[in-house]
Amino acid sequence: MTAIHHHPCDDLLVALAAGTLAAGPAAVVASHVEGCPACANRLAELEALGGALLEELPGADLAPEALVNTLAAIDALPVTEAERVIRTARRPDLPAGARWPRALADCSGTPWRWIGPGMRWSRLTLPSDPSANLFLLRIGAGKFLPPHTHSELELTQVLWGSFHDGRALFGPGDFDAADGRVHHQPVVEPGCECICLASVDGRVVFDSFLARALGSMVGM
Q1: Where do the Putative zinc-finger domain residues begin and end (predicted)?
Q2: Which residues contact 161 (CB under 8 A, 6 or more apart)?
């Protein structure tokens, strides 16, 4: 197994365990956890701690019909057009040997779209939150993203290949969280393209006007 050097912080794992992390970021963090034994163990510890704390809380009685009414309400929910698209849509192809994270099992994705020489992207849609800003970036060996920072938080999970952004080398299975304190330029290592799963809150703030225009097309 490839060594994993970069992991989500405890704050993200706690939010994932508590179910308070938004759908897009949760998909990225969960994709990391399922391939990282260290983070899977840490998440299990946090979930056990949360369960122990819940057991100490005083109980509360529910109305006898609460469960029946809840299940009936779920059954009555209409199937939206977005859900129909999600159920029938296909996902973009991945290189031989690459696999889709289980956290993305129910998602759909657009075909690969060109955004620059050697660079493509795919918009992903999650059934639980179709508005989540979640996508794949596929960048050729030796290619790079323009220099940028972030208005809020971007979470990235490397699915294939590797890149260096001036801070560190990120390889298969590695996770990165970048906000406005980070100004970097990810450069894909020679010899292999790189595919990353990314969730973006706010915007990616590119240095150049052209890069900002291309980024707005992607939702970055």
Answers
A1: 9-40
A2: 141, 171, 172, 188, 189, 192, 193, 194, 195
Q: Which tens digits make up the pLDDT trace of 48-90?
A: 885 544 455 565 566 666 666 666 665 665 645 444 444 445 8
Q: Cβ–Cβ contacts within 10 Å for residue 97, how many?
A: 6
**Cα gap 200→133, rounded to integer Å:** 6
3-state DSSP call for residue 212? helix
Beta strands in 63-202 (DSSP E): 108-109, 113-116, 119-126, 129-139, 148-150, 154-160, 163-164, 169-170, 175-178, 187-188, 194-200
The type of residue at 86 is I
Distance CA 187, CA 143 (A): 6
Bridge partner list, 201: none
Helix (H) or strand (E) holding 204: strand 204-206
- The CATH number of whichever domain residue 43 belongs to comes to 2.60.120.10
The mean of the pLDDT values for the chain is 87
* Structural domain count of the chain: 1
pTM value is 0.81
Closest CA to 117 of 214, 212, 208: 214
Type of residue found at 84: R
What's the domain range around 103? 1-220
Cβ contact 200:220 at 8 Å = yes
Residue pair 66/74 in contact by the 8 Å Cβ criterion: no
